[in-house]
Specification:
The structure holds two protein chains of two kinds.
Chain A lengths: L14 H26 L5 H13 L4 H15 L4 H6 L5 H27 L4 H17 L2 H21 L4 H15 L9 H14 L4 H17 L4 H21 L4 H15 L13 H21 L4 H18 L6 H16 L4 H11 L1
Chain B lengths: L14 H10 L7 H5 L4 H14 L8 H10 L17 H13 L3 H6 L4 H9 L19 H14 L7 H10 L17 H13 L8 H9 L18 H13 L8 H10 L8 E2 L6 E2 H13 L8 E2 L4 E2 H8 L2
Antiparallel strand pairs in B: 1-2, 3-4
Helix pairs in contact in B: 1-3, 3-5, 3-14, 5-8, 7-8, 8-10, 10-12, 12-14
The chains are: A mainly alpha, B mainly alpha.
InterPro entries (chain B): PGGT1B-like, Prenyltrans, Ptb1, Terpenoid_cyclase/PrenylTrfase
Protein name (chain B): Geranylgeranyl transferase type-2 subunit beta
Cofactor (chain B): Zn(2+)
């Protein structure tokens, strides 16, 4: 219903192919009807469970079947209600037995979704189902076993991200897994440093990976807080990050990902509305010094690259920000610069002429 | 900027072919794909019907059949599944409400269905009282898509008062990023489709004052690539559906003039199959009803001649939204 990246071809079927399709439809519909008939009786049996396996292997987008599978698991594969298991955890052998069997069931379910996830990495329902399984693990299994399952999950996410570095689901899922691994439910502790190092690794593999840069921006406040960073350490950290992204810009000034990360760092310098900054102690004069330095560094890029619009765009944005900080009016030295940048932008990036006009109007 | 038209040199909108394509969708019962996509049937009906509206052929689908099908998907709890026999889900419920609004069928929902109030309760019960966000169904997936969808449907039903709108708004704000964009959850990367859901939700809630117009406009306008199409995130390929998410967001914050309209019109027109109808994600690819809806909606928003004006918040005809909301 929504195909992406599939080449348009004229599809003509021979009568034989059409009949083959009809046969496939008949089998698929038969399976579906079997499932519906059983569901109608209101009993979620092992038999029904096996049928969902068959159907989901053909069509993992069929969300209702995932729901039926969950109901089957609850009523005939997993031990009694989850809260009972937890409250009677210290009690006798039957609980241990239940936990062993729950562990087996959940692990085999996780294994069941694996090939599906590799084949359909953007299918929401598979990710949701796995998330549900993992939540069951926390409720039903001894802590070390549950923790192991979640740790394995983090390994899986890394594998998915190696295959597709920008997979939006996988990044979101990674954050979710990390939050859970950090939680007291799994006897966890902060993983901010490890995750920060992971973004460094991903960025080294590809500077264009904005998803990694984004996650890095999310982790920085936590990392600094946990390091107990004082104002000096925070300023040093900011300096290192600025160096990192500027070095990257020197070789890839056309890469939007780098510019966005630079923009993020500049937002930390000048302040981003009411949001906390990673360098909250900077005085206005210090902010101005930082910003002027960044503007100068970016101007240096023009020596090697004078036809890249991103450079002029950054310069114009930061110039406006500088004027605001300095509270200078539009007659200042910066105003002349802004005119030059905007006129370059009009030439290099005529698609956004309306925007350059608005920037000019707003500045005057 | 020249008046938005199909460039006299360039391709023209193949309206008749598109109408024929949409009408053909429900006849392909001898194709396996028809059955394999049943979990999207009600959404598909919304995409097809709204495309017909934007193409100014709203009557092309028989009204009674449409209402009969929609009502056949409703559960006792008021929610709608994607098709008869499919579990109720927020996404199909919103499509049902949008379709009923488009065919002026709320009376039928009262007379033959479970009634507006029960639908409203189904949706309201999916709000997470702690975060203000919404679940998709009883299994608890949370995402700004669901929050938007719930506000969309509840506002059309006149039942926004059933939910904590302030809390929903606060949740959207917590998804804002430094670039002015929004992600699927707090802490998630800005993504054009999520930007649309967040900005449109704030528009429906009457809280556009919370959007950082300049920053967001900047990020959105950078989504236009040299070929005229728009992408959904930095360093990704352009796509007709992302073109809609970005364009509608720009329209809501009054910044459509920050991109080149004619280039986008040409990109969208180049994604149509002029012979057999329908739009694809990119030129030369397979068409589908999803891209057909958003391709037509995009052209409408860009002022392509002869099309029914679209409301960017709802992706429905402006005049219908105005009638339903009493605006």
């Amino acid at each position: 219903m929504a195909s992406h990246g599939v080449t348009r071809t004229v599809r003509t079927r021979t009568e034989e192919q059409r009949l083959q399709d009809l046969e496939k439809i008949k089998k698929y519909r038969h399976l579906e009807i079997q499932i519906r008939t059983q569901v109608a009786t209101g009993t979620y049996t092992l038999d029904l469970f096996e049928l969902t396996t068959k159907l989901l292997r053909q069509n993992p987008e069929y969300y209702t079947i995932w729901n039926i599978r969950r109901r089957c698991l609850i009523s005939c594969r997993l031990s009694g209600a989850a809260d009972q298991t937890a409250s009677a955890a210290q009690d006798g052998t039957s609980d241990t037995k239940n936990q062993d069997s729950d562990s087996q069931v959940l692990q085999s379910e996780i294994a069941f979704t694996m090939p599906l996830l590799l084949e359909f990495p953007k299918c929401y329902w598979i990710w949701n189902f796995r998330q549900w399984l993992l939540a069951q693990a926390i409720q039903r299994l001894p802590l070390p076993v549950a923790r192991k399952i979640w740790e394995t999950e983090l390994g899986l996410v890394s594998k998915m991200l190696n295959k597709d570095q920008r997979n939006y689901h996988a990044w979101g899922y990674r954050r979710l897994v990390v939050v859970q691994l950090e939680s007291s439910e799994l006897d966890g502790k902060s993983m901010a440093e490890d995750e920060f190092a992971y973004t460094t690794k991903m960025i080294r593999q590809s500077l264009s990976n904005f998803s990694a840069w984004h996650n890095r921006s999310q982790l920085i406040p936590k990392v600094l807080e946990q390091r107990g960073a004082d104002d000096k350490a925070r300023a040093a950290f900011l300096g290192e990050e600025l160096d990192l992204v500027r070095d990257a810009l020197n070789v890839g000034p056309e890469d939007q990902s780098l510019w966005y990360y630079h923009q993020f760092l500049v937002s930390q310098i000048v302040g981003d509305g009411n949001k906390p900054s990673i360098t909250p102690a900077l005085t206005v004069d210090e902010k101005i010094t930082y910003l002027k330095h960044e503007i100068d560094e970016i101007k240096d890029l023009l020596e090697d690259y004078d036809n890249i619009k991103w450079i002029y765009e950054a310069l114009s944005e930061y110039t406006v920000a500088l004027e605001r900080l300095q509270r200078t009016d539009s007659n200042g030295a910066e105003a002349g610069d802004l005119q030059v940048f905007l006129s370059k932008l009009r030439t290099l990036d005529p698609m956004r002429t309306g925007r350059w006009n608005d920037v000019e109007q707003l500045a005057s | 900027m020249a008046e938005a038209t199909g460039n006299s040199e360039g391709p023209k909108l193949a309206t008749d072919a598109h109408v024929k394509y949409v009408l053909s969708l429900d006849t392909k019962t001898d194709e396996l794909d028809y059955w394999m996509t049943e979990h999207l049937r009600l959404n598909g009906a919304y995409w097809g019907l709204s495309a017909l509206h934007f193409l100014s052929r709203p009557e092309a689908l028989p009204r009674k059949d449409t209402i009969d099908f929609v009502l056949s998907c409703q559960h006792e709890n008021g929610g709608f599944g994607a098709a008869p026999g499919h579990d109720a889900h927020l996404l199909s419920t919103v499509s049902a409400v949008q379709i009923l609004a488009m065919v002026d069928g709320f009376d039928e929902l009262e007379a033959r269905g479970k009634g507006k109030a029960v639908v409203g309760k189904f949706l309201a019960d999916l709000q997470n009282p702690e975060s203000g966000s919404f679940f998709g169904d009883e299994w608890g997936e949370e995402d700004t898509r669901f929050l938007y969808a719930a506000l969309n449907a509840l506002s059309l039903l006149g039942l926004l008062s059933l939910v904590d709108v302030d809390k929903a708004v606060a949740h959207v704000v917590s998804c804002t990023n430094f670039d002015g964009g929004y992600g699927a959850k707090p802490g998630a990367e800005s993504h054009a489709a999520q930007v649309f859901t967040c900005v449109a939700a704030l528009a429906i809630a009457g809280r556009l004052d919370l959007v950082e117009h300049e920053k967001l406009g900047r990020w959105l306008s950078e989504r236009q690539l040299p070929g005229g199409g728009l992408n959904g995130r930095p360093e990704k390929q352009e796509d007709v559906c992302y073109s809609w998410w970005v364009l509608s967001s720009l329209a809501i914050i009054d910044r459509v003039h920050w991109i080149e309209k004619q280039a986008l019109i040409n990109f969208i027109l180049n994604c149509q199959d002029p012979d057999n109808g329908g739009f694809s994600d990119r030129p030369g690819n397979m068409v589908d009803v999803w891209h057909t809806c958003f391709g037509a909606a995009g052209l409408s928003l860009l002022g392509y001649p002869g099309m029914e004006p679209v409301d960017p918040r709802y992706c429905m005809p402006k005049k219908i939204v105005a009638r339903v909301l009493g605006e």
